[in-house]
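Posted in: Protein Modeling Q&A

I'm a second-year student putting together a small comparison for a lab meeting, and my supervisor asked me to include a predicted structure for NAD(P)/FAD-dependent oxidoreductase. I've never done this before, so apologies if this is the wrong subforum. The sequence is pasted below exactly as I got it from our records. If anyone can share the structure token output, I'd also love a short note on what stands out.
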Amino acid sequence: MGVLGGGLAGLSLAALLAEAGHSVTVYEAGEFGGKLSRLSVGGLAFGTGPSLFTFPGVWRHYLAALNEPDSLDLQPLEGGLGLHHTPFGAVALPVPPDHPLSGEWQRYLARVGPIQAEVETLLTRPPRLNDPAFLRASARVGRVLGGHLSAESWISAQHFSPLLAHALNTHALNAGLSPKDAPALYALLPALIAAEVSRPAGGMTRLLDELLRFCRERGVTLLEQTPVIHLDAARGILKLGSGTARHDLIVSALDPARRAELSGQTSKPQARTVSGLAIYAAFAELVPLPATSIIAPSNFQTFRRAVQAQALPPDTLALVHADGRKLALLLTVPASGQALNLTQPWVRGQIERVERVLGVPNFLRKALDIQALDPVHYAALGTAGGAIYGAAYPAWRSGPFHPQPYRVSAKLWQVGTAVHPGGGIPAILGGALIVSKLIQQA
Ligand SMILES: Cc1cc2nc3c(=O)[nH]c(=O)nc-3n(C[C@H](O)[C@H](O)[C@H](O)COP(=O)(O)OP(=O)(O)OC[C@H]3O[C@@H](n4cnc5c(N)ncnc54)[C@H](O)[C@@H]3O)c2cc1C
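Accepted answer (user: helix_wrangler)
Welcome! Here is the predicted structure, written out as tokens:
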């Protein structure tokens, strides 16, 4: 079997297919890891891309399928999902027991917490109407969603105070979409993940190390710097820079538009999730900030209008992670593929806003070294415009209830962001479990 793309999706699937006894080759155009890569800034090692490891239960399902013990050493992230700064004040999620909003948070947990196992089921099992476990889980999650399509609509129906509502709406942006466009399921995420949000003790790149080890130990052929330049899925032929390869079955772990392009097809331009400018900075001293701070857009409608017009929003979502002498700052931007750097006035303005809100004026200027990854970087081997979470689908087409296009044609399957846009690591690992099961059953 040939797997196109050696990001987390391609590698996690390759290990499962090899475990099932198949001979597997992974073709990666650049370096393994895709969005999760290693970056050295000021002599300090950073992992780019994902920073929050959520739904550890999905990881445990994945390990069970490989008969592997858990060696990731996941550590709870100090401060959970972090301190959320909104126009109505700041609140940590999970809301601490002594906070005035603790009662509202408990009401939210009581409503959403009980469906944790069901969401895990939906993340890891093929969506099949003849599977009672899938149907039971869908029905229970559907009841909590209560017919709301968007995250904004679900949150507004709960009549939370403006501060908690704004913080929860901010989280919906994890799908890469404004709360009005993000599926309602994203409104439930803080309740489902806040208690268990974690990171491997050795940093996120440990996940990449583990997936590579699982592949190597099962005999997967791992080819780095080996771009696929043409795909003939019907005949199972991949054209590489140097020669061709033939496979009985091919799985694409690439963006679907990129995969279509490799087959010589054109695909319709699609709406996109957001992109980002990720800034990684190394300091001489410990960074005096909480582990995670989130600075919300002050107005979601203004934010949405700007992103839809592919314009830079007046004040955007910023995620700040502090870890010892390291600081990572992610500014959300539209997926327009534009080049951004630290000298541009909009970027400088957003950094000043973040520093002002966090009470550390001119902080970034003290960095020993800074590197930034912009939408041009994310677009290079990823999705059009640098969309971090792939294409944007309407709410009714997103999430676990929508039958996903796992099988593209007789010999071609797809996995990863292509089938679970907005899902992050849990959907990548769960999607690999689903696709490997479906391939075994086919
Ligand atoms: C800044 C940022 C923050 C994030 N934060 C989180 C988070 O906190 N938690 C979370 O769970 N998720 C997060 N995510 C999302 C998570 O990183 C992604 O969902 C995941 O890494 C996607 O993996 P993938 O394998 O589907 O895609 P990719 O990582 O894009 O992998 C695709 C691979 O295909 C390769 N490729 C492309 N074209 C070819 C070709 N022609 N031939 C061969 N190979 C090719 C690319 O080089 C790449 O390695 C974040 C992402 C970003 C960018």
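A couple of things worth pointing out for your meeting: Residues 4-10, 27-30, 34-36, 49-52, 54, 227-228, 253-254, 258, 262, 276, 278, 330, 381-382, 388, 416-417, 424-425, 428 surround flavin-adenine dinucleotide (CB under 6 Å). DSSP finds 14 helices and 20 strands in the chain.
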